[in-house]
């Protein structure tokens, strides 16, 4: 079996978000780029499964839709342990476009399991994993918090309101994963970083895909009014304010 | 043309976010003269379905066939596509919930309908639909237009104010033409009953590292009980194992938008704020007056949680009993 992990290249999560004058594009000056946090968890889990599979999982590949400037992030993922990488050389226009590209590769290369993080930390669409599955007409399970492979059977846990469901699923399928699938992402060791230098990144052009939406502009939230500080002895006053002024209780 | 709302229920009771979606749909309907068709899948009785009409659903397509009760994303997508076609829908609304997020993107591909997810307000224009959504974990908003003939939106909580708009009740029991052929199987379900669902709670009480140990969580739980609130925590708390990961709110955890978020002993790292910035009102209790949380809070108490919390619990109790 082969696993494909989707890797988003996103601004570090502590980045101060600013835009250009037209409010069209992110001001990328000084931005550090990282693997999307949930994709990092997905990759960590995929590698764990591979290692525990007694050779049943032959390889874990990664894929990114982006220009050459995404390659440092792909090298990071290779250093963490992915075997090889695909990069579709195109601007990641929107979720629909990205999913169409990834689905094409997953189909061509006959991947059995596709891992996607539940959303990206930049656009937060929470759409790519499910869209890939529909493009391929295969199963998808989302909100996955646990993944077990034993004797060729796959058992997932899916988060539902107030609990979880245990789900069995047949390959091929897309697992859309979130926190819980593993706790901390794996960190690249020196040996991994050395090895990553020679691992292949296969670059290919995008397939033609229509776009169904158009981004107009960004907007920043209104600055909040200053916090009203209440004396620790006057908790009754806080309750009064929440009731009378804020009207939330 | 019509507007479809995918309405979710839990054990036969409609979810608050689904009622909100009907109200949202009704606002589009008022501007475009399209009927609002709610789709319900599951054992929801007529009395409960009547709620959808109370908020403006002119028709309710109700699927109660036992075969269709288990959520399989691929099959549910086919079902909503079939009903959308039957109802000649050009706008389809979901909650930005686990289930909404599992179906809406698939449906977008299936119907070639532009998807705008995590919508936070009513559309700014209707033909084509242009609407504001959340991006960068709430650090920005993004205005997006749908270019395709059909549009799909997933709605964040509090994307519109709930108001009644009673119309006459019209329930259509519906047997899907599509056969249910799921290749996923739900082997078991493990749900804690009686717990307030965090992502739907009106009030959430959340604890951070300032509480020093999971053993001190009675302070958080007691306040939550008084307020009938959901329980949450910051990332270090769940990473340390003081509380379960299901309670972690913040960028990599759950994104919530309650009316009132009470943060106790949470300094307010930017990743935490990303998970709670949609809250209407934030109250912060922390002993460090320079903690970033006070920049985002509406009301703050600078003080030691162990001294403040018992007093605060008493104040809320007094209010509840008055």
Structure description:
- The complex is a heterodimer of chains A (249) and B (322).
- Chain A has helices at residues 37-51, 71-80, 95-108, 128-136, 190-196, 235-245, and strands at 2-6, 9-11, 33-35, 59-65, 84-89, 113-117, 139-150, 153-160, 163-169, 173-177, 201-205, 213-219, 228-229.
- Chain A is an alpha/beta fold and 249 residues long.
- Chain A has a single domain, classed as Rossmann fold (3-Layer(aba) Sandwich), CATH 3.40.50.620.
- In chain A, the strands form 2 sheets. Chain A has a 9-stranded mixed beta sheet with strand order 9-8-7-10-6-1-4-5-11, with helices on both faces. A two-stranded antiparallel ribbon of chain A has the order 2-3.
- The radius of gyration of chain A is 21 Å and the shape is globular.
- Chain B is globular.
- A 7-stranded parallel beta sheet of chain B has the order 7-11-6-1-4-5-12, with helices on both faces. A 5-stranded parallel beta sheet of chain B has the order 15-14-16-17-18.
- The mean pLDDT of chain B is 96.
- Chain B has 2 domains: 2-173, Rossmann fold; 198-321, TPP-binding domain (Rossmann fold, 3-Layer(aba) Sandwich).
- Chain B has helices spanning 16-32, 46-54, 73-86, 98-111, 218-227, 235-239, 270-276, 293-296, 305-321; strands at 2-7, 9-10, 13-14, 36-41, 59-63, 89-95, 114-119, 125-126, 129-135, 140-146, 151-155, 171-173, 184-191, 203-207, 230-233, 260-264, 281-286, 299-302.
- With 322 residues, chain B is of the alpha/beta class.
- Chain B is 30% helix and 28% strand.
- Classes of the chains: A alpha/beta (249), B alpha/beta (322).
- Strand 13 (228-229) of chain A pairs parallel with strand 18 (299-302) of chain B.
Key phrases:
heterodimer; A: alpha/beta; Rossmann fold; nine-stranded mixed β-sheet; two-stranded antiparallel sheet; 6 helices; B: 322 residues; alpha/beta; five-stranded parallel β-sheet; 18 strands
Order of helices and strands of chain B: EEEHEHEHEHEEEEEEEEHEHEHEHEH
Radius of gyration of chain A: 21 Å
* Adjacency order of strands in the biggest sheet of chain B: 7-11-6-1-4-5-12
Protein chains sharing the most extensive interface: A-B, 85 and 98 residues
Strand content of chain A: 25-35%
CATH class of the largest domain in chain B: Alpha Beta
- Largest sheet features of chain B: 7 strands, parallel
Structural class of chain B: alpha/beta
Molecular shape of chain A: globular
Q: Largest sheet of chain A, if any?
A: 9 strands, mixed
């Amino acid at each position: 079996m082969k696993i494909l992990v989707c890797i988003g290249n996103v601004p570090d999560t502590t980045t101060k978000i600013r835009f250009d004058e037209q409010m069209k594009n992110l001001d990328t000056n000084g931005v550090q780029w990282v693997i999307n946090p949930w994709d990092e968890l997905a990759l960590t889990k995929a590698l764990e499964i591979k290692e525990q599979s007694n050779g049943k999982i032959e390889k874990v590949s990664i894929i990114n839709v982006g220009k050459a400037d995404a390659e440092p992030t792909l090298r990071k993922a290779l250093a963490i342990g992915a075997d090889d990488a695909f990069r579709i050389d195109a601007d990641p226009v929107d979720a629909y476009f990205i999913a169409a590209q990834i689905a094409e590769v997953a189909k061509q290369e006959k991947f059995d399991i596709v891992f996607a993080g539940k959303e990206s930390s930049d656009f937060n669409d929470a759409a790519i994993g499910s869209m890939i599955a529909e493009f391929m007409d295969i199963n998808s399970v989302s909100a996955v918090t646990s993944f077990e492979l034993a004797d060729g059977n796959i058992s997932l846990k899916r988060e539902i309101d107030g609990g979880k469901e245990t789900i069995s699923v047949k390959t091929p399928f897309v697992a859309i994963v979130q926190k819980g699938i593993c706790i901390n992402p794996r960190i690249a060791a020196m040996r991994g970083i050395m090895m990553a230098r020679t691992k292949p990144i296969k670059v290919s052009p995008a397939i033609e895909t229509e776009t169904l939406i158009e981004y107009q502009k960004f907007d920043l939230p209104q600055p909040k009014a200053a916090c009203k500080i209440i004396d620790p002895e006057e908790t009754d006053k806080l309750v009064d304010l929440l009731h009378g002024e804020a009207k939330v209780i | 043309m019509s507007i479809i709302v995918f309405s979710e229920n839990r054990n036969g009771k409609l979810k608050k976010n689904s009622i909100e979606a009907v109200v949202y749909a009704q606002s589009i309907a008022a501007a475009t003269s399209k009927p609002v068709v709610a789709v319900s899948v599951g054992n929801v009785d007529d009395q409960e379905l009547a709620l959808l009409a109370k908020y403006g659903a002119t028709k309710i397509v109700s699927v109660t066939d036992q075969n269709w009760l288990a959520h399989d994303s691929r099959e549910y997508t086919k079902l909503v596509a079939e009903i959308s076609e039957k109802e000649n829908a050009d706008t389809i609304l979901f909650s930005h919930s686990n289930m909404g997020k599992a179906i809406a993107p698939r449906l977008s591909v299936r119907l070639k309908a532009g998807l705008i997810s995590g919508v936070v307000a009513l559309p700014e224009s209707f033909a084509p639909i242009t609407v504001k959504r959340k991006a960068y974990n709430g650090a920005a908003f993004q205005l997006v237009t749908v270019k395709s003939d059909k549009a799909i939106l997933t709605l964040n909580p509090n994307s519109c104010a709930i108001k009644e708009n009673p119309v006459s009740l019209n329930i259509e029991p519906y047997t899907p033409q599509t056969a249910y052929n799921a290749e996923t199987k739900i082997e078991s379900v493990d749900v804690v009953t009686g717990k307030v669902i965090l992502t739907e709670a009106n009030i959430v009480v959340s604890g951070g590292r300032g509480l020093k140990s999971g053993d001190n969580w009675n302070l958080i739980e007691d306040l939550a009980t008084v307020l009938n609130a959901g329980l949450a925590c910051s990332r270090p708390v769940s990473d340390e194992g003081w509380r379960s990961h299901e309670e972690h709110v913040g960028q990599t955890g759950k994104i919530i938008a309650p009316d009132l978020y009470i943060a106790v002993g949470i300094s307010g790292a930017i990743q935490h704020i990303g998970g709670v910035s949609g809250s209407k009102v934030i109250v912060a209790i922390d002993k460090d007056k320079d903690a970033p949380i006070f920049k985002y809070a509406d009301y703050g108490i600078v003080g030691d949680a162990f001294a403040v919390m018992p007093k605060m619990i008493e104040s809320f109790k007094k209010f509840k009993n008055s």
